[in-house]
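Suppose you are handed a protein chain with no further information: no name, no annotation, nothing but its sequence. What can you learn? This example shows the usual starting point.
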Amino acid sequence: MDKKRLVYVLVAVVVIAVAAAAVLLLNSGTSPTLVKYDNVAVPQATMAQLNSIANNMSLANSVGTGLAEASMLPGATGSHMLTLNGLPEVLYIGADYCPYCAATRWGLVIALMRFGNFSALHYMTSSAVDYDPSTPTFTFYNSSYSSSYLSFVGVETYTNYVPSGASYYAALQTPTQSEGVIFNKYDTNNTLLPADARGGIPFVDFGNLSIEDGALVMPDAFYRHTWGQIVSSLGNSNTQQSQAAIGAANVYTAAICRMTNNTPSSVCDQPFVKAATAFLG
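A reasonable first move is to predict its three-dimensional structure. Written in structure tokens, the prediction is:
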């Protein structure tokens, strides 16, 4: 897999056999204490802590683009802005099982907190039988987001578990017809992507202006940590977690500022935004 793109190809993922999964779990050190928090609402105190980190502009400027590895792809030109309810839209399509989606959500949550507020955000871990098993993250399933600057839609297509007797992860959310058209245009049929990377997740469309096909950072930064450990480490610009989550968040923030005509200025006029524009398509 190309680390510079970090695409998790949705159609090519094969569920690991039970015997192989057992070996992986035995060797991974995966903690059941993490998995038990799947779909548990994030406490308000933790949300407040994340919001404080997200809006610490000094910290953001210190991190810059951090560990962000890949650049976004260009979207549409002209008057083809993706909107929802009269506001430019950020559309995320991923899956709970996907380890690269797990890494992406940390930065995306932080970036979106600079423009609005989440409610009912839930804890999640990536698949226990995949790369970097049970990486702590969040899920956009059953969450909501409000902002006066943009609309956000998060679609989690599959859960992180395979039901008994099944051969694939349980289905969770289905993109609408219009969301499917966008995914096909900028992902499945996007000739700017290598053929073996098309149809992959995570996919994030920033108003049809900038497209993320694949994660900017590796899940390694978050694997084998608890949510509390990760959140605590984000306040230090020199930690791997901060360099990954805030570095990616800064790139996402630059993409959102492009959508919102650089408002609010308290965020979009920051030096890190200008530095991160080099990552935009």
